[in-house]
């Protein structure tokens, strides 16, 4: 059976960079099945969010590997010698799912509590602006085929930052704003809240579901991501909540007043 790879990267929707990386992965192993998922540029919040959703809350199956390259190189504001970036790492979750991603920002934060082992992958991290095409696919293909010879020393889990609180994680094609706020962390018995986001402030109804308000109303309710303890979602029935809130981006803070 061939390995199915969820490729999560910030190249941009329809960007040929996805084509190049998929081409290289297929060169390394023509049997690999690869599905690209795009996140906004440099957004480790969105990357970590989708690693969690695809890795923990969608039905598990054998031969699934998540490979992500979102590597903003923002940990050091100084010049980078030979385009050096963060370590490419191998994580195995408690479920057995394998994740290959750059250790940067919040990439591993949303699955931190589920990581059984986190190790550096022995691969060049400098010498190319496009490491995820030129260097990483060889190692990803090896791991997809059960070859862990490049998996090196263990990394400390306590150095992974906690996932961000009260933050925009994703804006979908309907303008629904998916957040990092768990339903269990929020009082859903209140009728409405005032939300400040994206330079806009609006009164938003609170409901048990995103369709629990009249057409045209803004609502805060448990959404479709996050598993049994859903993440809250800000939506507008029949419209775009993102448009109402100034088109926020992943990482933007949500304030309640």
From TrEMBL:
Matching InterPro entries:
SAM_HAT_C, SAM_OH_AdoTrfase_C_sf
Q: Which Pfam families match?
A: SAM_HAT_C (PF20257)
> For the region Disordered, what residue ranges are annotated?
223-257
Ranges where the S-adenosyl-l-methionine hydroxide adenosyltransferase C-terminal domain occurs:
167-246
Put simply, this protein is called S-adenosyl-l-methionine hydroxide adenosyltransferase C-terminal domain-containing protein
């Amino acid at each position: 059976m061939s390995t199915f790879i969820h490729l999560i990267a910030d190249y941009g929707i329809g960007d040929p960079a996805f084509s190049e990386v998929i081409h290289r992965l297929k060169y390394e192993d023509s049997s690999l099945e690869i599905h690209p998922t795009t996140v906004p540029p440099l957004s480790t919040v969105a990357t970590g969010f989708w690693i969690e959703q695809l890795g923990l809350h969608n039905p598990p199956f054998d031969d699934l590997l998540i490979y992500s390259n979102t590597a903003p190189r923002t940990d050091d504001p100084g010049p980078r010698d030979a385009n050096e970036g963060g370590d490419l790492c191998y994580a195995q979750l408690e479920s057995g799912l394998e994740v290959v991603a750059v250790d940067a920002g919040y990439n591993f934060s949303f699955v931190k509590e589920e990581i059984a082992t986190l190790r550096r992958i022995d691969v060049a991290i400098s010498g190319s602006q496009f490491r995820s095409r030129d260097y990483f696919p060889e190692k990803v293909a090896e791991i997809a085929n059960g070859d862990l010879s490049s998996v090196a020393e263990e990394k400390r889990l306590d150095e992974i930052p906690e996932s961000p609180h009260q933050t925009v994680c994703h804006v979908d094609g309907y303008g629904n704003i998916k957040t990092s706020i768990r339903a269990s962390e929020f009082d859903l018995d209140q009728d409405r809240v005032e939300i400040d986001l994206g330079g806009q402030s609006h009164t938003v109804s609170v409901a048990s579901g995103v369709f629990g308000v009249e057409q045209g109303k803004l609502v805060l309710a448990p959404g479709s991501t996050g598993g049994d303890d859903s993440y809250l979602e800000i939506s507008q029935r029949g419209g775009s909540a993102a448009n109402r809130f100034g088109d926020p981006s992943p990482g933007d803070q949500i304030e309640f007043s």
